[in-house]
Amino acid sequence: IFNFSAGPATLPLPVLEQVQAELLDWHGSGMGVMEMSHRDKEFTSIAQACERDLREVLGVPANYKVLFLQGGATAQFSVVPQNLLRGKTSADYIVTGDWGKKAFKEMGRYGRANLAATSEAEKFTTIPDRASWKLDPDAAFVHITSNETIHGVEFPDAPEVCGVPLVSDMSSSFASRPIDVGQYGLIYAGAQKNVGPSGITIVIVRDDLIGQVLPGTFAIHDYKVVAENDSMLNTPPTFAWYVCGLVFQWMKNEGGLAAIGERNARKAALLYDYLDAQDFYRNPVAKPYRSKMNVPFVLANAELDAEFLKGSKAAGLIGLKGHRSVGGMRASIYNAMPEAGVAALVDYMKEFVRTKG
Ligand code: PLP
């Protein structure tokens, strides 16, 4: 089957096969990774290799910490302000979808959340023009959601924010194409879309931004304390961490983010070109901001939705139901979705039009 779910999402087949082969006996250790102590040298070597490969694949500069946390991106909606306010009282938020809106709301618990720009009036189908953003030069950071998973809206590049640290929720576009990590103060992402199973969250943060948490912040949420303990202040999600490590190795074998990014661009183009070439289906997002990871679309006749989904499932194309807040369909085409999967989806869509259109 081809799994178009928004997350937890499909993983690369070679990774799953390796997990299967090593499940009961990792590298002759006589035990599987799930059964290993996180303090043993076997697991420490797995954790270190994962970080090394992540740094290599993303090109993380030496003055950034890479942290492996729990609580999902949702916990980071709070943990980011707890760490990054650093004596300041406000932060700027660019809200381009429901996830950014949630992050914005959480910020309000810790200080003044400034809604510097939002596309809510356009039903989150675009990104407000950079010239219209009302940024505050005294803000502690500017928060964006690089890719809004529900609405299928993606920033093509890191926006310029006048020297204030840029924070990005990259949950659904992490490691999907090359980026310049140095343009960000902090990047966070739940792993369960492009890099592994759910249960582990990756934070990449510039050294000079950590170590000044708000009073009352738990030690487990203090980036500096976590970094000093190699993300093992408490028992980490060992199995998820291990699988992420295999995914980063797979990314290297695939030719790194340049090759992966090109493939993702081809996959997205195949689907959007078809969506734009007929009027039975429609994607509402402004073209420069269309997501290469999550492609929402609606049928002109919503009464056919249930039939479309039933038929797609029977054809081995699963997870296509759109998010409940926007309806219609959504095809999530993360790194592990092969080009053949997108081609199979387009073929199915054409056949559906031929019989029902
Ligand atoms: N941010 C984005 C962009 C997401 O897509 C999601 C989940 O889909 C989240 C945050 C929430 O992530 P988690 O479930 O890991 O807390």
TrEMBL record:
L-glutamate binds at residue 39. Binds 1 pyridoxal phosphate per subunit. Keywords: Amino-acid biosynthesis, Aminotransferase, Cytoplasm, Pyridoxal phosphate, Pyridoxine biosynthesis, Serine biosynthesis, Transferase. One of its GO terms (cellular component) is cytoplasm. Pfam families: Aminotran_5. Its cofactor is pyridoxal 5'-phosphate. It comes from the Bacteria. Catalyzes the reversible conversion of 3-phosphohydroxypyruvate to phosphoserine and of 3-hydroxy-2-oxo-4-phosphonooxybutanoate to phosphohydroxythreonine. This is Phosphoserine aminotransferase. It comes from Hydrocarboniphaga effusa AP103. The gene is serC.
